[in-house]
Amino acid sequence: MNALYSELQWLPRPPRDFPARLKALAHASDPLGREFQSLALPALDLNQLTRLAKAIDREREAGKSLAPLAPFRLAVLSNSTIDMIVPALVASAARHGVALEVIQPSYDQVAQEALTPDSRINSAKPDAVLFALDYRALPLKLVPGDAETSTRVVDAALDYLQSLCSGIKAHSTAVCILQNFVPPPETLFGSLDRALPGTLRHHLDAINRELASLTFQSGHVLLDIAGLAETVGLANWHNPQLWNMAKFAFSGELIPLYADHVARTIAAIRGKSAKALILDLDNTVWGGVIGDDGLEGIHIAQGDARGEAHLAVQRLALDLRQRGIVLAVCSKNTDEIARQPFEKQPEMLLRLDHIAVFQANWNDKASNIQAIAEALSLGLDAMVFLDDNPVERGLVRQLLPQVRVPELPEDPAGYARTLAAAGYFEATAFAAEDLQRAGFYQDNARRATLQKQMGGVDAYLASLDMTITFQPFDATGRARIVQLINKSNQYNLTTRRYTGPEILEAENDPHVFTLQVRLADIFGDNGMISVVICRPAAEGVWDIDTWLMSCRVLGRKVEHMVLAEILRHARAAGICKLTGTYKPTERNQLVVDHYARLGFVKVAEETSGLTRWEMNVHSASPEQAPMKIVSQGFAAAGETLHA
Amino acid sequence: MDEQQIYARLAEIFEDVFDDDSIQVTPDLSAKDVDGWDSLSHIRLILTVEKAFKIKFSTSEIGKLENVGDLAALIKARI
Known about the structure:
The complex is a heterodimer of chains A (643) and B (79).
Chain A: H1 3-6, H2 18-24, H3 33-40, H4 46-61, E1 70-78, H5 85-95, E2 98-103, H6 110-115, H7 120-123, E3 128-132, H8 147-171, E4 175-179, H9 192-195, H10 200-218, E5 221-223, H11 225-232, H12 234-237, H13 240-246, H14 255-269, E6 276-279, H15 290-297, H16 305-322, E7 326-332, H17 335-344, E8 355-361, H18 365-376, E9 383-386, H19 390-399, H20 415-422, H21 432-440, H22 457-463, E10 466-471, H23 478-487, H24 500-508, E11 513-521, E12 524-536, E13 541-549, H25 558-572, E14 577-582, H26 594-597, E15 601-605, E16 611-616, E17 627-631, H27 637-640
Chain B: H1 3-18, H2 39-53, H3 59-64, H4 68-78
Helix pairs in contact in B: 1-2
C-alpha cells in the first residue's frame, strides 16, 4: 500500500506523549477546541483517533465548550458497519476545525431513515446527511450483454439514490453528501467488463458518472470515494475478510484516510478550506540556493530530473492559482536576488505577477507569514505553507498552529503529490468568480510590512536540542571547507576564495587559527555550516580573514556561538584584539551588519562600502544561545598558536 | 521475539485499543474481563495486532481465539 496515502504522510507523526496529553485534557479548562485540534493534527492511527473521539465526546457531554471548532451535526446512513468509522470522523473533523457530532441510526436502515418524516435522522435536524453506501447496497442484477435491462438496472439504482435525497430534502434542511461507488477488483470477463453493458463494472461506471452530474446540478455534494479507492488501489480498498466477518465496506487500515476525506469535505461545506498557498523558494520552488548557486546554478530546467520535480511544484501552484488560490512567497533571501529567477530564468513557470505578496528577507518565517495574512486580509487558518526545511516547518507549526504546513518527503519528486494529497484546498462547488479571485489580490508582488518579531522563537530553538561542534581544519573536513569557501556567497564577510592547497597551508600553519563548525538538531545533522580563518596581524591581534555560514541555519544564533569560540581561543593564545572586515559584493548584503550585531566597533568605512571592525577580546561578552557545545581537536593548538 | 516480548507489546496494544492503562495482560485474560471488549473492538484489536507484528490471521483463526493466551500462541507461531 502507498504509505503517502494510507499513513497520511503530509501530516506530522503523532507525539510520543499523545496518551498523556489526552489524559491532561480531563483537567483542562475550556474552551478546548484549540487543544483538540492540535491533538488531532498528526497522522493518528485508528486507535488514537478512537481515543481522541472518546475524549471529545466526553468533554462535550460534560458541557465543556469546544470553541473555536465549528459545530456540525452529521447523520451517516450506510449499509455497512460504520461503528469503527464514526469515532475516526469525529477526531478527523477536529483536525479540520470542526466539532463534529455524528447521528448514527441502526445498521442498514437507509431508506426508512431517509424517507420517514419523523425518523431519527430527520428529527435530529442534522447539518448534513452522508450516504456512505457501498455497491452492495444497490440491487445491481448482472445482465451481461443485455443493454436494455442494463439501462433499467442503472436507472433504478439512480432513482433509489435520488429518492433518498428527496426524502431528506422534504423532511429536513440537511445537505446530502453522496458517496459514489467503488467497484470490486474482481472482473467477470476481464477487460471486457468495462465495455459490456450489464456487468458490475459497467453498471457502476454508469451510476458514478450520472451521480456526479446529478450532485453537480442539484447542490448536493459528491464524495468521490471511487477516486480515493482508485488512488490507493481497489485491491487495497476492498477486504473480503472484513466484509465477511463484520460487514466493513473497506479495509480497516484505510479508515484514517477515509475519515480525513469526509472531514475535509465537511470543512469545505463550512467554508474552512485554505485560500492561499505560501511558498518557500530555495529547494522548494527551485532546486538549490539562489543566493549561493546563482541563476545558472539553480535546478529548474526541463530535462533535469531535480529541476522537473520543482517545476511540478510550480505547475501545481499555478493550476491552483487559476482555480482561485492566492499565491505568496516567504523566503529567507535578499529580496532582489530572490526575484531574479522569476524575472530572468526562462524555464520558470511562476512569474512575479502570479505572486500576490513576495516576502523575501532574513526575519523568521512565522512573522512573515503573519504579515502575509494581514496583507491579504485572510485568516491564518486560510494559509498553507510549503517548505522543504523541517526546522522552518516546525517553527511555523509551533508559533502559528492555525497555518497548515505539510510534511514533505526527502525527494522533491514527491512534493507536488504530497501537497495535493493533503487536500487543503478542497471545494464542494466552483463559481465563475473563483477564476478571478487570485487576481483580486494582485498588486505586482508587493511586500507586506512586518508588524513585529514573533515571540517564542527562542523557546522553539531551545526545543531543537542543538549541538554545535567546533574543530580546527583537518583532513576529514578539508573537501567540504574548500567547497564552502568557494560556494558561499550570502553569509560571507569577505568572499575570499581559496584552493585546496591553500587551505592545507592554513591548516598546517601554527599561527593561523581555523575553525570548522557543525550543527546537529532533532531533525538530524546539518553537517558543516560555518568556516572561520583568523590570521595573525600586529602583535596580539587576530584578523578575521574569512567568516562564512550556511543560510540554512540562519536565525539560530550560530554566529554568536562561533564568536564565543573564537574569543575563547584568542584569550588562550594571548590575543587582545580581533579585527574584521565586511567586503560588500552583489550577494552578501545579508551580513552588512554582522559585526555590529556581534558587538564589534566600526573603525573605518570606505567609499566602496567596505567596513572595518574591532573587538576587545577581554571585555567582549557574546550572547549565548541554547545549544550544547562540543569543542575538540584544539588541545595542542592553544599553546602553539601563541605567535 | 520471545513470549515475554510478545506480552510486553500486547500490553501496549491493549492500552491503545481499550484506552485503559490498567489492564493486566495475562494468558487468561478474555473479553469478559475487559470493559468495552465487544465484537467490534475485537476486530480493532486484531487489526492492531496484525499491523504491529506484520502478520495476517485467517478468518477461522480469528474465530477460534478464546483468550490472550491463544492470541500470543498464534503470534508466536507466525513470527
